[in-house]
Amino acid sequence: MSSKNHTIGKYPCHTQEGDEPSIGPTIATRLPKGKHQTDELVLGFGNIVPRWAVIGGNTELQYYVKTDSFPSPAEAKIAGENLQKAAKEWNEIKFGITISQSPTKKDAHFDLVYQKNGVGSERTLARAFFPHEKEQDVIVFELAFKNPTMIKDIFLHELGHVLGLRHEFAITIEGRGAVNFGEKNPKSVMSYTFPPEIQKSDKEGIKAFYKEKNGHLIGTQPITDYTPTPRKIV
C-alpha cells in the first residue's frame, strides 16, 4: 500500500461488523460483476436513523488532535492537517454541520488519535463512529502513513460515518437497520471506490437528509437527532 503502483478498488471497512466505522485497503480491482452494481446514500442503525441536531442554523463539531498518541509531532501534524482538509470539503456543502479543530481538549466533541495496527486490524487505515455513539474518536492507523497522500481521502469517507452515513451497499451486506436515501451512485464517497471522493449525489443527499425534521420516518425508522457534547477527558 506504500506504492502508487498498487491498484486499490475496494476498502474492507468494519463499520457494521464491530459497530465501529473503519476503513482499510485491499489490493483488488472491483466488486464481482452482478453484485452491488448500483450504490445509494445509505442511512440508519438499528431501529433509528442517527443524525446531529442542527441548532441555530449550524452545529459545529470540534475535534482535538491528541498529539501524544502519535509517534511524533510531525505525524500528528500530518493527520490533523488532512482531517481538516477533509472537513473543509464537507463544510463547503453547507448542510448545517461544520467540523473544525479545537485548540483545547475540553471543548472537543471527539479526538483524532493514532493507533498501531494489530491483530484484527492488520489492514485497517482508519476508524470513526456514528452520531449516536458516545465517547468515540476518529482513529488513524499506522498503515495510513505508508502513503500519506491518501490520508485526506480516507478521512473524507470516515467523516461521512461521523455525519451519519453508512456504506453504499450496507442494505444487502451489513444490514443492521440500513435504509436507502437519495440517488444511486457507485462512486459515492461512502462506497469502497478508491480514492474516496465526494460526489454531486453525496452533496445533494446529505443536504436533503439534514433538511428533514427530527422524527421524520425513512422507511419505518425515525431520524433521531443527537446534540454534540464535549468528550470526556481521558
Key terms:
single chain, 234 residues, alpha/beta, Collagenase (Catalytic Domain), 6-stranded mixed β-sheet, 3-stranded mixed β-sheet, 11 strands, 18% helix, disordered N terminus, MetalloPept_cat_dom_sf, metallopeptidase activity
- What is the highest CATH level, the class? Alpha Beta
* CATH homologous superfamily annotation: Collagenase (Catalytic Domain)
The N- and C-terminal alpha carbons lie at a distance of 33 Å
Helix/strand class: alpha/beta
Give the overall form: globular
List the quaternary state of the chains: single chain
Arrangement of strands in the largest sheet: 1-7-8-6-4-5
Topology, number of strands: 11
CATH architecture: 3-Layer(aba) Sandwich
Give the integer mean of the pLDDT values: 80
Alpha carbon gyration radius: 17 Å
Spans of 5+ residues with little confidence (pLDDT < 50)? 1-8, 14-40, 169-180
Region (Disordered): 1-23
Protein name: Peptidase metallopeptidase domain-containing protein
GO molecular function, one term: metallopeptidase activity
InterPro entries: MetalloPept_cat_dom_sf
What do you see in this structure?
With about 230 residues, the chain is an alpha/beta fold. The chain has one domain (about 20-30, about 40-225): Collagenase (Catalytic Domain) (3-Layer(aba) Sandwich), CATH 3.40.390. The protein contains three helices and eleven strands. Strand 4 (about 60-65), helix 1 and strand 5 form a beta-alpha-beta unit. The two termini are about 35 Å apart.
